[in-house]
Task: inverse folding
């Protein structure tokens, strides 16, 4: 259901860190949902957007937000595995935590900067979400590399 998806997006990520990314995705989801109800009653009756072939900017924004959300969920899984792998080394654990906090701050700032160019436009949310998904996917690869190391 649409409301269930909205609730899912508005629920704080299972990240150990607070992030403006979460708040931005929540705002995107809420705005998209409200727009959907007001102007796209046919789409509002469906359970999920067609993210294989979105037809409206609102669908593009929502699908980009969902992709970013899913990437963040995967990142959290990998982060927990890396943290578990180094749990016996308190210094490395602390450095990982600090690095992840700094990376999240970078990601959020970088994506706000990328979307700022389109400030006030309907494409801005998808620019932000696409940036976040891409940077998060890159970070996942970095953390996966740590898992491969002895």
Result:
């Amino acid at each position: 259901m649409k409301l269930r998806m909205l609730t899912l997006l508005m629920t704080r990520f299972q990240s150990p860190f607070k992030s403006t990314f979460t708040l931005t995705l929540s705002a995107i989801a809420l705005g998209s949902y409200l727009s959907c109800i007001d102007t796209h009653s046919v789409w509002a009756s469906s359970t999920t957007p067609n993210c294989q072939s979105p037809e409206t900017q609102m669908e593009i924004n929502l699908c980009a937000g969902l992709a970013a959300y899913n990437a963040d969920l995967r990142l959290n899984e990998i982060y927990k595995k890396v943290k578990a792998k180094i749990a016996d080394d308190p210094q490395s654990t602390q450095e990982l935590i600090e690095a992840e906090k700094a990376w999240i701050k970078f990601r959020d700032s970088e994506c706000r900067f990328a979307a700022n160019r389109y400030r006030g436009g309907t494409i801005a949310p998808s620019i932000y979400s696409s940036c976040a998904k891409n940077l998060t996917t890159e970070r996942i690869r970095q953390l996966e590399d740590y898992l491969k190391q002895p």
About this structure: Residues 57-85 form the longest helix (29 residues). The two ends are 44 Å apart (CA to CA). The chain has a mean pLDDT of 80. The CA atoms of residues 68 and 134 lie 8 Å apart.
